[in-house]
Amino acid sequence: MKSLIKPTRRAVLAGTAAVLTTPYLNRAWAADPVEINMLAWYGHGEPDMVEEFEAMHNVKFNSKYYAGGDNMLALIAQSPPGTYDVILSDGEFVQQLNAAGYIEEMDADDYDFDDFFPEFQNFPGHWKGDELWSVMVRYGLLGVSFNTDVVSHKEAMSYGVLWDEKLKGKVGHFDWHLPSLGQISLYNGNDDPSPFDIDEAAWEKLQETTMSLRPQVGGFFDYGGTFSNLKNGDMHAMCGIGDWITGVLRKDGAPVDSVIPEEGGIQWTESYSIGKGTDKGEIIRDFIQYMLSPKGQVRSIQMAAYPGLSPTKSGWIAIQQENHAEAVRSGLIGGVDNSPIKMIQEGRIHFRDIPQQQDLEDWNDFWSEYKNA
Amino acid sequence: MSGNSSLYKYTWRLPLLIWQAAFFVVPLIFLVVMSFWLVKNYRMQPDFVLKNWDKMFSRGYFWDAYWLTLGRAALASVIVSLIAFPASFALAFKVSDTSRRWAIFFLIIPFFTSYLVRVYAWQVILAEQGVINALFGTMGIGPVTMLNSGFGAMIGYLTLTLPLVVILQTFSLAAVDRNLIEAAWNLGCGRARTILSVIVPSAKIGLILGAVFCFILSFGDFVAPYYLGGSKPPTLSILIIDTTKSGQQWPRAAVVAICMIVTLFTVAFAAIALAYGKPRK
Amino acid sequence: MRAALLLYVGAVFVFVFAPIVASVVFSFNSDRFPSIPLGSFTLNWYETAFADDSPIWEAFRNSLIVSVCAATLSTLIGFATAYTDYRYGFRFKAGYIALALLPPTVPLIILALAMLAWLSQLGLSGTLTGIVVAHTVLGAPFAMAVTRLRLSQMDPSLEAAAWNLGASEWGAMRHVVLPFCLPAIISAFCLTAAVSFDEFAVAWFVSGLNKTVPVAILEILQGNVDPQINAIGTVVFLTSMALVTVAQLLLMAKGRKA
């Protein structure tokens, strides 16, 4: 008995150790590139965005992903200062970052603002007077997102379709208050000056209208859940999103689409800032320049996680040459109907912003109440 | 021997005290302390205000979430216990000892798989265009909505707790004195009566323990209601996450957490009193 | 009747294992949102998840470090507590044992929040050390239970015999108690390592850039909803099973010897 057990046990231990460690040893622990810590929306640190830059400059991006500006601020507040070297922020949250002392001032001469469309050269929120705090890299539009088998494009031209009887229990929300409430605010007609700049009476009405949508709602979803529920057909319409979700799903062949309805659409804007206290400011500057270059813009437009639009004229030209179909689809061609610049000029697009006359906390609080109703 | 006895004794006695005190008791006490702090501009400041308690308690949605979570967890513990019982009964009385050991071994396996991965698999299986609806489709039944509902969340709770409950129930049922059962048979009790009057009371401790663990786990879980229940409506655990991850309102999250702990301890103590209480007669 | 009950047991097992089996099957399936009929066989998800520069390797490294450290600490504390319970009676012992067994009764999310807040104060938030600390709190009760079980199988006169033969308490510990408890100690180590490896709630709250595997899975679930999850899950499952099987074999083998 003894001789049977002992070698067996040793053999088992040795064998297990070998099996467990092999995959870990096989991997080449490569020579150390410079590590850059990034805080961003999902997908910005993935190979399809950064691999070329990583190879060129021998750096490696470590990313922490968030969903929503409130989430970003919370994450940064709970990490030791100086954790993040580069921060991708929504435009409207940049001054919040600044006020809390999380980002460094940037030098406008480092970046080619002449290549920007005039609408974006002095983007609100990125500048504080003459100081530059964040550089715009990409943007996108939010409108009505729907399943094309269930809702027609014509019906989708108004946010009112979300209240349609046939969508009962099939309307989903992206689980963040700002875009959803902004869209319903537009539905209520708050387009001057902005759906986010509303007085007390309008805020009361906004809450009322939103509550009236509750019986239609099938669920509140994070980034991943939004994808899967639209794809799986569990939800037939989504509030608070736009092409950034449906664009990816369309690539997978799902029958979904987004349109900018008559009441208007909302623009989300992403920009890079330099984290306070970082010693990698120069590399980050190079990275931002790379992202603004035609090569970087093409990657950004076709980002695997979710597509974005380009703020630079050279970016538009580059994508027209590189992937004409995508340029047509996104309207990145001068003068076409769905060109974002044209829509901005027509006044159909409103930049997303933090609430002006209420606190962010008020809107967030109402969101919790809404979810619980 | 008595010379170094104290050193010896305390070497073994102290590690737990020090570690648990520093990293278990203190954080929980800190949670209470923190619930009186203030948050300004996404940063916390030590203070002593009742504002957080006031705000949370006055919010309709807090109480809605509270009763909902309580109700769901209670329902889960009842449903899971009932579903587990026939299986545990079979494993305790109807199979050989070896088979039972193998069954328990297999039931331990899920503990070493990721709960997250299993929930994700259920998401795929239960989706409108998922596996089960595809099967229904071949049988001519229209797509059944299973996700983003109480049903979905319940499947999640089952996934989380069923193995544990079955194991606990089986252990306690298997330990029931066979003589008692024989005596009941000899006295002419039918099967059902034997189960209800003899077996269940004897196995009381294990059955209640299983239900309590199920309650605790379901009460605190956020994965099932979020990923299978569509956050609709949100439970207390989801409320904690929302408050922490989006609002940076740790003090308010602490208020929710403390209410949860108090509730849990109350339920646990009541259950244990029930379990170990003197039998009636 | 017996047949019906056994069928029921079978159904329960099917329910418990359905998601696990589905996950393994889907990890080899080409469809991103699998359904019936299945797509084609592919190793794509494994390749993506375990590509050379995939962050999963970093996560695995972190998970390994955390679980080994947490398991070591848990086992040490668990053994100390079990031995104290076995050997000594003292005032407040009931409270002492309650303290030891309390952690599993507190929902993970609450523990996670408390840990996050407290560790932030200590400056340990966002570090692997923080996760190790939290996981030790979670694992110690399990280690204690396993070791205590083994100790209860030990003949109490063994230790006394050693003392009578002139051994000091330390000597007796080294030559009698520890060897006897070795299988339980190794078992406890593997068990707490496995618990730590799979734990996600506390790790998610406490970790920052240093992710463990479960946190990486959670982030993919929240982000891309990729079948990569299945690939990672399957590998994690195999690793955990390996640990558990080793523990079981050792326990069984030594058990037979003693």
Account of the 3D structure:
- The complex is a heterotrimer of chains A (373), B (281) and C (258).
- Chain A is α/β, with parallel strands linked by helices and 373 residues long.
- Chain A folds into 2 domains: 34-139 and 267-333, 3-Layer(aba) Sandwich (D-Maltodextrin-Binding Protein, domain 2), CATH 3.40.190.10; 144-263 and 352-372, D-Maltodextrin-Binding Protein, domain 2 (3-Layer(aba) Sandwich), CATH 3.40.190.
- Helix content of chain A is 42%, strand content 18%.
- Chain A has helices spanning 2-26, 47-57, 69-77, 94-99, 118-121, 177-187, 200-213, 223-232, 243-251, 281-292, 294-301, 313-322, 324-330, 340-345, 360-372; strands at 34-41, 59-66, 86-90, 103-104, 127-128, 131-132, 135-142, 144-147, 171-174, 217-221, 237-239, 256-259, 265-275, 349-351.
- In chain A, helix 2 links the parallel strand 1 and strand 2 (59-66).
- In chain B, helix 8 (178-186) runs antiparallel to helix 9 (191-202).
- Chain B is mostly helical and 281 residues long.
- Chain B has one domain: MetI-like (MetI-like fold).
- In chain B, strand 1 and strand 2 form a beta hairpin.
- Chain B has helices at 5-34, 51-58, 60-94, 97-108, 115-126, 131-138, 150-174, 178-186, 191-202, 204-220, 223-228, 236-245, 250-276; strands at 38-40, 43-45.
- The mean pLDDT of chain B is 84.
- Chain C has 258 residues and is mostly helical.
- Helix content of chain C is 77%, strand content 0%.
- Chain C contains 11 helices and no strands.
- The model of chain C has no long low-confidence stretch (mean pLDDT 84).
- Classes of the chains: A alpha/beta (373), B mainly alpha (281), C mainly alpha (258).
- The interface between B and C is large, with 85 and 82 residues.
